[in-house]
Structures are given as C-alpha cells and as structure tokens.
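A further point concerns the way the authors explain their paired sequence and structure data. Each protein is reduced to its one-letter sequence and a matching series of backbone shape codes. An entry of this sort, consisting of the sequence and the corresponding backbone structure tokens, reads as follows:
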Amino acid sequence: LDDFTSEESDRRWWAVYIKARQEKSLARNLLGHKIPFYLPLVEKKQCICGRQASSYLPLFDGYLFLYGSDEERVDALTTNRISRVLPVRQQEELLTDLGYLRHLIESDVPLTIERRLTRGAHVRVKSGALRGIEGEIIRRENGSRLLISVNYMEQGVSIEIDDFMVELVRSNDPT
C-alpha cells in the first residue's frame, strides 16, 4: 500500500468481487500481469492430525482491491476469476481504510471480522501500538470493541479495546 500514491495517474482503486475461493489464485494471476492489488490476508492456525498448521486466509471472503487503469481492469477480467468489478468513488477514503487494516494485521492483534456495520462514535486510538488508528466503537456483551471498517463494503474487523485508550473524534448522537 505504500507504493500506491494519490498522484495523477490513470490508475484507480476497484473493489473486485471474486468467484468462490479464488482470491489467492487471482492474486497470483495479477502478479503475473504486473497489475497492482491489495489482498488483506490473516493467519489461521489449526491442529490437523496432531500437527500445528497455519494458513493465510483472505480477511474479506470474495474481495480483492485492484489498483489499475481501465486496461488493467480488463486484463484482470480475462482471468475468468472475477464476478464483478465495483468502482470506488472515495479513493482516498478507501486507501486510508486499507492502510488501517494493514496496520492492524501487522500488529498481530486478534481480529474479529464484522459484517453489516452499525454506526457508533468515531474514535482515535491515543496510545500504544495502534496509536492514530481511527474507527467506530461498537458495544458488545463482553465490553467495547474498536471497529475498523472498509465502509465501501460494509465490512471490517474489530479488536477489543478499553475506553481509556481512545479519544472521541466525533459522535453520531443526533442530540
């Protein structure tokens, strides 16, 4: 994501909806075509036949983020692994959200995938390894969770966080 700048170019972000279980295959195809993309992966550890095994799974089932021109988008479609290509209107917002997701994945904190997001208070982490990350607070039975979302897809990830670690950026309270 560090190489994707907002300089003037014919490239832009696309949310690519992929056929079932084709995320990594499409990523390999795009690497072969030298088309830039971002596929957030998280490690999943499991015990198989008494042996510890780990694999990397897509954070968002069925999605990959393509950074390309119209011509590169058409090249990606020729892989026959794509169901739909969705334009992203808020390019900078998506890049910021993806940067936050990357930071969370790299920080190796336990993530919980969240679907169909609900709105809450928008906060920023004040201290620690996640300092500066913004998201929304959602309440759960077991306490507070900071939700980092890709608003475009209405999906995201959450981490457990204490209230004292965040500061209010804005409230969505209508009063």
